[in-house]
């Protein structure tokens, strides 16, 4: 019985041992199969990843994808992306310019039409082997240039985007200094008088740039404006939009003042007066002080002084300055009385001088007129030499008429019309010395100079 049990135990052990061997062999076979499958699995996984990566790259790098990125940047007002796309080594596009460019596309073309035209252009370049294509505004200006620009990641065509730039120019009559921001930087430009001045290069857009300008009349705050719309040249004209005051000055009581010598003074600077002229422009933020002065018969008269405050200033600001008319009229009346007396005095002198001159010329005798001339002057020496040379007859004159006369101290200035020795009317300017003590006494008048 015991022997039988031992025999059964041995058989059982053998069976278990055999089973273990079989399981071990099976496990080894399975492991070998798995090891053989791992490289294939890894390879397949890598291939799937590469396929996914390819399609991802295609979505972001194909010509169509690049066009979509540009359109989305315009749609979403992404000024940073537009700035990066359009900036070049020579021309950096700032955020403000990019914003203006985006608005210009939307206003001039429209987003939907721009999207379609850009994709059509990209398709033509990519599929039809064109070098470049353009997106244009309705008035024919190029707003975007699309070009083939090599390849990306070996597989994809690379599309380049660029836009034209134009010079913004301005021409001023007076020296003007502008300060404004462009390319995200502060700029200062000085425009010299009557010269075309460039403010910078700009990409397409309707621009309204905050700026200050400074002239001899002060500092202004406003805008510089210009537009690419309708511009068919390499430049665009800049216009100013600054609140300004111009002065329309009228004078009361200045009727008798000499218009040639009437001046207006604005903030300490003097200008010739013209009642049809607007004076300016001046800043509307500063006070302006205005006055006037004029001459009549050698005397200067001044008007009242007005101070204009910012709340009074506008594009056409009326200004009325007043002179003391009564004082001017009184002075003119007195002066005319003196002038009539002086004119009579000079008339009497020239009547006597003409008679003596003609007598001297007939006899060629200088001594007959020497008492009428101031000795040792150039005129005295010339006349004496003329008579000594036998040319005294050339000095003859007829019918002298004093047309204008004035006096400054002992000097008298007279314009005298007469008929010369050739029979022609001529007007001569004389300077005389008056040493007489009595009004109307012409005995002490002496000719200092004479000029026709």
From TrEMBL:
Tell me which GO cellular component terms the UniProt record holds. Answer: plasma membrane
Q: How does it sit in the membrane?
A: Single-pass membrane protein
Q: Which InterPro entries match?
A: Mem_prot_TcaA, TcaA_2nd, TcaA_4th, TcaA_5th
Q: What is this protein's record name?
A: Membrane-associated protein
Instruction: List where in the cell it is found.
Output: Cell membrane
Coiled coil start-end: 321-352
Q: Where is the TcaA 4th domain?
A: 234-309
The answer on whether this UniProt entry bears the keyword Coiled coil reads yes
GO biological process terms, alphabetically, are:
response to antibiotic
Answer whether the UniProt record assigns the keyword Metal-binding to this protein: yes
Task: Write down the superkingdom of origin.
Answer: Bacteria
Any idea where the TcaA second domain is? 63-161
GO MF, one term, reads: zinc ion binding
Pfam family example for this protein?
TcaA_5th
Domain TcaA protein NTF2-like span(s) in chain numbering:
343-435
Q: Which UniProt keywords apply?
A: Antibiotic resistance, Cell membrane, Coiled coil, Membrane, Metal-binding, Transmembrane, Transmembrane helix, Zinc, Zinc-finger
Per the record, which residues fall in region Disordered?
1-28
Which family does the UniProt entry place this protein in?
Answer: Belongs to the tcaA family.
Per the UniProt record, which residue ranges are transmembrane? 37-57
């Amino acid at each position: 019985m015991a022997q039988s049990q031992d025999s059964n135990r041995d058989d059982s052990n053998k069976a278990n041992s055999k089973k273990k061997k079989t399981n071990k062999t099976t496990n080894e076979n399975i492991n070998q199969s798995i090891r053989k499958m791992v490289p294939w699995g890894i390879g397949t996984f890598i291939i799937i990843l590469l396929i996914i990566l390819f399609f991802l790259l295609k979505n972001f790098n194909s010509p169509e994808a690049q066009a979509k990125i540009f359109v989305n940047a315009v749609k979403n007002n992404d000024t940073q992306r537009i700035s990066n796309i359009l900036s070049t080594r020579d021309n950096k596009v700032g955020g403000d310019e990019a914003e203006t460019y985006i608005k210009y596309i939307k206003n001039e073309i429209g987003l939907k039409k721009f999207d379609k035209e850009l994709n059509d252009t990209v398709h033509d370049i990519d599929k039809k082997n064109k070098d470049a294509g353009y997106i244009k505004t309705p008035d024919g200006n190029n707003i975007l240039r699309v070009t083939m620009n090599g390849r990306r990641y070996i597989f994809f065509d690379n599309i380049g985007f660029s836009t034209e730039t134009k010079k913004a120019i301005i021409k001023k009559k007076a020296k003007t200094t502008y300060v404004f921001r462009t390319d995200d930087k502060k700029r200062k430009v000085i425009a010299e008088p009557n010269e075309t001045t460039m403010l910078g290069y700009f990409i397409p857009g309707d621009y309204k740039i905050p700026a200050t300008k400074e002239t001899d009349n002060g500092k202004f705050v406003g805008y510089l404006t210009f537009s690419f719309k309708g511009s068919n040249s390499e430049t665009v004209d800049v216009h100013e939009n600054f609140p300004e005051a111009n002065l329309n000055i009228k004078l009361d009581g200045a009727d008798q003042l000499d218009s040639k010598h009437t001046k207006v003074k604005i903030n300490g600077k003097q200008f010739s007066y013209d009642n049809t002229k607007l004076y300016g422009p001046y800043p509307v933020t500063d006070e302006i002080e205005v006055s006037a002065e004029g001459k009549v018969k050698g005397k200067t008269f001044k008007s009242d002084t007005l101070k204009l405050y910012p709340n009074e200033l506008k594009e056409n600001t009326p200004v009325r300055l007043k002179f003391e008319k009564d004082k001017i009229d009184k002075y003119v009346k007195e002066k005319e009385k003196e002038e009539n007396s002086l004119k009579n005095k000079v008339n009497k002198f020239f009547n006597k001088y003409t008679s003596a001159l003609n007598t001297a010329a007939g006899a060629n005798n200088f001594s007959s007129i020497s008492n009428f001339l101031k000795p040792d002057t150039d005129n005295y020496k010339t006349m004496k030499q003329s008579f000594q040379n036998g040319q005294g007859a050339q000095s003859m004159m007829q019918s002298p008429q004093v047309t204008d006369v004035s006096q400054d101290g002992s000097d008298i200035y007279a314009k005298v019309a007469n008929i010369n020795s050739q029979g022609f009317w001529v007007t001569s300017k004389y300077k005389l010395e008056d040493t007489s003590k009595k009004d109307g006494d012409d005995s002490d008048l002496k000719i200092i100079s004479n000029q026709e």
